[in-house]
Write a structure and sequence with these properties.
alpha/beta, Rossmann fold, single chain, globular, transferase, transferase activity, Polysacch_pyruvyl_Trfase, Polysaccharide pyruvyl transferase family protein, 16 helices
Length: 403
């Protein structure tokens, strides 16, 4: 593979996406040391700054945004007519041998019913042109509540050159919907980033500092009233501080221009409420340190409680136990890999129940640390790359172009 394109994500302002890019590049360079890796970005300058030290070329991702076509699509949707409006430039695939779709949950349906039909078309075009198109580090589905969309995913996923899933729940779901021959498991790319950056043990009490990540995006899966959610989540944090006589560090993991996706501005409001009663016992990470930089703050924590799945992964990768605040099935899969059960996954809504979250924090502080560290080291093992490489190097499947 001489030329590889990373494609799909909307930007690495999301620290999880930054981790996926960095970890994917590390893995691809291990498999194909001489390959040139290119990442197509919607915000080249910002992503270049955030991806310093990453061995990739960053190019602008073409974006077609036709207002007229989107209006037509919306109107036709009222009479159940599908009129796709593709945002991607399909000619881009011509310059690459391998196209890698990155973004852990690109192949899901959002809370608003959106699914990546343009990205799927991009992959179909690549395959039709004899290119390899793979999904990397992904969680997929479920689509069962959307039968028409499910059928489109089934048709597309069966043609994809290779699906590399980051958790076993996705493997089981794909098997259930008839997709299994082109599927492998590999841990999330985030485990392959800054692998030596882990915390050292201290002699302080087990629960002195708790890291907490909350996000407006995940909260919107449960309520449209963010102000009410802020009040309830701030109350839960206050109860945690009072119960454990601890300090809380708020950990933004997405810093977005979209206020409904921006952890920092959302948690800053929570901090202001909690500070009224607890002052300096609560702080928030400033200065946008990125996926690697925020590890230094995570390492100060004894436990992390996270709504953003990659914030939890970032924590456990530094040897800090994490509780997953779940709003989708991907958290269940990740927790199963780490703890061999889902005991430390709770619904995000349950965070507001102080007794529930306090009990979970106390429970996770008692886990067997040696077993926990062993499992994280196992997830960092890159022996799976030989099998992935073998599949990538298989001759591409010829897919006839429709007349």
């Amino acid at each position: 593979m001489k030329n590889i394109l990373l494609y799909g994500i909307w930007g690495v302002y999301n620290y999880g996406c930054e981790a996926i890019v960095r970890g994917t590049v590390n893995s691809l360079k291990t498999m194909f040391p001489e390959a040139k890796i290119t990442y197509a970005s919607f915000d080249v300058e910002d992503d270049k700054e955030r991806l310093k030290g990453c061995d990739i070329e960053i190019i602008e991702r073409p974006f077609h945004n036709s207002l007229i076509k989107r209006i037509i699509r919306k109107l036709l949707s009222y009479v159940n007519i599908d009129y796709p409006v593709y945002i991607d430039s399909f000619d881009l695939v011509n310059d690459y041998d391998l196209i890698v779709s990155i973004g852990g949950d690109m192949y899901t349906i959002s809370s608003t019913g959106y699914y990546p039909y343009s990205l799927m078309k991009f992959g179909d075009v690549a395959i039709q042109k004899g290119k390899k198109y793979i999904l990397w580090g992904c969680s997929i589905g479920p689509f069962d509540n959307h039968p028409k969309i499910l059928k489109k995913f089934q048709q597309h996923l069966k043609k994809v050159s290779l699906i590399v899933s980051r958790e076993h729940e996705t493997l089981e779901y794909l098997k259930k919907i008839g997709v299994s021959k082109n599927v492998l498991f590999a841990p999330d790319p985030a485990y392959n980033v800054a692998t030596d950056n882990v915390k050292t043990e201290s002699n302080r009490p087990k629960i002195s500092v708790i890291g907490i990540n909350l996000s407006p995006l995940s909260t919107l899966y449960f309520t449209d009233n963010l102000e009410d959610a802020i009040t309830k989540q701030a109350k839960a944090i206050s109860d945690i501080i009072e119960e454990f006589k601890c300090k809380v560090i708020l950990l933004p993991h997405v810093l977005s221009k979209d206020i409904k996706d921006d952890d920092y501005r959302y948690m800053l409001k929570i901090k202001d409420v909690v500070s009224e009663e607890h002052g300096k016992d609560v702080e928030i990470v400033e200065n946008d340190p990125g996926f690697i930089g925020i590890k230094e703050h995570i390492k100060k924590c004894d436990v992390v409680v996270a709504a953003r799945m990659h914030c939890a992964v970032n924590a456990v990768a530094t040897h800090t136990p994490a509780i997953f605040l779940s709003y989708s099935k991907k958290s269940l899969g990740m927790a199963n890999l780490i703890y061999k059960n889902t005991n430390f996954v709770i619904d995000l809504e349950e965070f507001n129940n102080s007794s529930t979250i306090i009990a979970k924090i106390r429970e996770i502080s008692e886990i067997d640390k040696l077993d926990f560290y062993s499992k994280i080291n196992e997830l960092r093992n890159t022996s799976y790359l030989s099998e992935v490489k073998e599949h990538i190097l298989m001759p591409p499947q010829k897919v006839p172009t429709k007349n």
